[in-house]
Input
Amino acid sequence: MKKIVLAFMAIFILSVITACSSDTSTSKTSHSAKASQPPKILHGPNITLVAKKGTQQLANGVTVPVWTFNGTAPGPEIRVKKGEKVKITLKKTNCRLPFPIHWHGYPVPNSMDGIPGVTQDAVAPGKSFTYEFTANKPGTYWYHSHQDSVNQVDRGLYGAFIVEDPKEKYDDDYTLMLDEWDTNKADINAQLKTMTSKKRTDSSGMHGMNMSGMNMNGSNMMMKDNMSMYNLYTINGKSGDLVRPLKVKKGDKVRLRFINAGYLPHILTFMDMPLKSLQRMDSLFMIRSR
Output
C-alpha cells in the first residue's frame, strides 16, 4: 500500500499572525480543537445559494460576525462540468443586503454578469434570482457579491467556481481560497454599521464594486486605508490549527487551485515539495518551493 504523506502549505507568516488584541471578538475554544472541514463542494448543474448572516470561527479563540453563502465564508465551492447548462439560484431569506453575484473571470451573458445598475439590478432582500449559462470554459474562477463589495466580500460573501474538463485527470484536486481578516471588534462593528446603513441597503443604488477607496499601483491592489488592520490570514476561512492538512498519496498527480479573495499578496511556500509545473499565476501570488 502506498504510504500516506501530508502536503503542508505555509502561507506568509500565517502561523504567527493568529493572536488577537483585547478588542478582538473572541470565543473560548480548546487548542486541541479538531481541524475544521473546508467549504462544502456543490456539484452542478443546479445549485442554490442562500445568503445569510452568521458567525464563524476563524482560528482558536477567534470568532467573528460574517455574511455567508449557505452558512460558511467562503461559501460552497461550486463545481460544474464543461458543457453543462448551469442554473444557480441566489436566495435572500435572511439577508438585509442587496447585491447580485458576479462570476469573476468567467465569460457569461451580459444579463448574468451581476454588475448592479449596468447589467443587472441588485437582488433585493427576500427575493431570488437564477443565473443561467453554459459552462464552456474549463478553469478556476470565483463568485462574489458585486454591490458594496469592498465591505461585503471582506465579510465573506464569496466562493470558488470550478469548471471541470472531463479530459483532465488528477488523483487529487484541491481548491484553496486565501483571505485576510481584521478581527478588531471596533473595526468590525463600524464596518457592519456601514454595510447595513440605509444608503448601502438601498437596492436601487449603483454601488457596484465601488473601488473608489482603492489605489491600483503596479501589480498590487491596495486600499487607501492602512492595510495593517488585517491581522489574521485564512485558508478556506480558517487559520492556524484549524486549517485542514491536504492528504495525498506518494506518486499521486495533484492539482492545487489557489484563489486570492483578499487585498494583500500572499507568499506560498511548499516545504520539501517541488512543483513540477505552474500553469497560471495571478499577480497577487508569489509561489515558491524549497
Q: What stands out?
A: The CA atoms of residues 194 and 263 lie 19 Å apart. The longest strand covers residues 46-59.
